[in-house]
Amino acid sequence: MVNQRAGVLGTGHSYPEGILTNAELANIVETSDEWITTRTGIKQRRKAAPDEYTSLFAVRAARQAIERARLDPADIDLLLCATVTPDQILPSTGCIVQAELGANNAAAMDIVAACSGFLYGVSLADSMIRTGQVRHAVVVGAEILTQYVDYTDRQTCVLFGDGAGAAVLGPVDNGRGILASKIKSDGRYEEQLYSPGGGTRKKPTAETLAAGDHYFKMKGNELFKVAVRSMAEISREVLEQAGVKAADISLFIPHQANQRITEAVADRLNVDLSRVYSNIAVHGNTSSASIPIALDECVEAGRIKEGDLVLMASFGGGVTWGAVLMRW
Ligand code: ACO
């Protein structure tokens, strides 16, 4: 069996022009800039216009990642689109993105793992590249969450934002690439973060729409504790698997859910905040897009150099969680 290590060959991101600030939210729901900033670290989030949809941003992010990898869309063998806000139920947003890109040699599909979707995709693409089943994979995380929040629920509507991020993965040499990855889920926690309406269990009817059953419902407090515990635990597991100490990590990119979650996880891992990336102030929580947007921002800003050890960890609805460690 081939054991070819996979690494990131190119990254990209894209988001809507529209911005929703905390002050604007305070005009819609009973909240304040002060509460949102101190409890979450968020100052603003990107908000798609009513006529914008998820694949628009997914295509832009993926195209940029493919160009930066110096590849042609026809070179892509696998396209994984992580999203909980698809364009439509059928076909997958992955197939819609594939057609727009002209990635006609790829197998395309969606991954529904909420905020962990991107790391789920990276982990699966890594396995398929390692075994020689595919050579080049695009993993894109894309969401329009602001169209699925209830603007009368101040606990959720202040958290989420829109955008997309992507990475092209392919074979790499010289000790570089993904050293370890792990993904997990526990469906028993379904109701900690879910959107009950719109599927076959609670069908999309005028009544379910009027009741707001398609909006995200969240038990933020409980989720907070599970998120910190799971992200820290799975990060330790991948570090151990790769025989790497937390002190050796050059950059930690956690899922951007809440600045307090980020700081609690970094503290548990003993990683100094100077080595932790945060963009939550400007993007809020973009679910599956959060880590690839952050990764591309770090690449653009020159925060990652060849040979650096980069750890990424996520947690999201499902519940799902995961971690990936790579040498850049
Ligand atoms: N503005 C003002 N007050 C608020 C707001 C708001 N936006 N939201 C809640 N409050 C109030 C509450 O009503 C409560 O008031 P009370 O004490 O009078 O009852 C008080 O503030 C404290 O509420 P808590 O829920 O305890 O606040 P907490 O510090 O836990 O922060 C938050 C809430 C930000 C939601 C936090 O729990 C959190 O970040 N949870 C995790 C979210 C997460 O990780 N989601 C998973 C990933 S997302 C995905 O998978 C798509």
Number of strands: 13
H-E order = EEHHEHEHEHEHEEEHEHEHHHEE
* CATH-scheme architecture of the largest domain: 3-Layer(aba) Sandwich
Task: Tell me the fraction of residues in β-strands, as a range.
Answer: 15-25%
- Per CATH, the class of the largest domain reads Alpha Beta
What portion of residues is helical?
A: 25-40%
Helix/strand structural class: alpha/beta
> Which blocks of ≥5 consecutive residues have pLDDT under 50?
none
What small-molecule ligands were found?
acetyl coenzyme *A
Radius of gyration: 19 Å
The fold-level CATH name of the largest domain is Peroxisomal Thiolase, Chain A, domain 1
Q: Main sheet?
A: 5 strands, mixed
Written account of the structure:
There is one protein chain. With 328 residues, this protein is of the alpha/beta class. The protein has 2 domains: 6-174, 3-Layer(aba) Sandwich (Peroxisomal Thiolase, Chain A, domain 1); 179-327, Peroxisomal Thiolase, Chain A, domain 1 (3-Layer(aba) Sandwich), CATH 3.40.47.10. It is 34% helix and 23% strand. The chain has 11 helices and 13 strands. It has helices spanning 22-28, 33-40, 54-68, 93-101, 117-130, 154-157, 206-210, 220-242, 259-269, 280-283, 290-300; strands at 6-14, 19-21, 44-46, 78-82, 107-111, 137-144, 162-171, 177-185, 193-194, 217-218, 251-254, 309-316, 320-327. The strands form 4 sheets. The chain has a 5-stranded mixed sheet with strand order 1-7-6-4-5, with helices on both faces. A hairpin with a 3-residue loop joins β12 and β13. α3 crosses α4 and α8 (220-242) packs parallel to α9. The relative contact order is 0.20. The structure holds acetyl coenzyme *A. Acetyl coenzyme *A binds at residues 31, 35-36, 39-40, 114-115, 154-155, 158, 193, 220-221, 223-224, 227, 257-258, 261, 285, 287, 316-317. Acetyl coenzyme *A is lined by residues 31, 35-36, 39-40, 114-115, 154-155, 158, 193, 220-221, 223-224, 227, 257-258, 261, 285, 287, 316-317.
